[in-house]
Amino acid sequence: MTSSLEVTTFLDALLGGRAFLEDVDGWVDRWHKAGGAPAGRPVALHDYLGLGPIEYALWVERPSSLRFVVEARRAGRRVDDITGLASIAVEEANDDAEAQRLVAWLRATRRIPTDHTG
Q1: Which DSSP symbol is given to 40?
Q2: Mind listing the pLDDT tens digit for each residue in 61-71?
């Protein structure tokens, strides 16, 4: 439970069932409207969203990767390096078109080796 002085992050709200993936733009809008200080004190956008720097960078560059970041967190894993996200996507790539596209993009941008299998 958060106190009135603590700000719930988007990811906490999402994992707690109080937000949906599609709500991320609204969270970003609130952060911007508050001048980067939604609780009266400045906070980096990635912290407000509850994303680590790598997770945030991936989401900015490829918004569909947010789903896999959330799945990693639900599995108790944080995407501290690109291979963590790749592993989640590779696990789903057999029957998930977006996972296949993410893995292909990670390979094309040389973030993972072309032979990476998770």
Answers
A1: S
A2: 888 888 888 88
Whether the CB-CB separation of 34 and 41 falls below 8 Å is answered with no
The DSSP annotation for 76-105 comes to: T---SSHHHHHHHHHHHTTT-HHHHHHHHH
Two tokens, residue 64: 């569909």
Q: How far apart are CA 7 and CA 39, in angstroms?
A: 7
Q: Name, in order, each residue with C-beta under 8 angstroms of 45's C-beta and a sequence gap of 6 or more.
A: 28, 31, 36, 56
Question: Can you read off the two tokens belonging to residue 36?
Answer: 């980067």
pTM of the model: 0.71
Average pLDDT for consecutive 10-residue bins of the chain (118 residues)? Answer: 61 94 96 92 94 87 85 76 63 69 78 64
Ranges of each domain in the chain? 1-50, 53-118
3-class state of residue 114 by DSSP: coil
Distance CA 39, CA 48 (A): 10
Nearest to 31 by CA among 22, 43, 19: 43
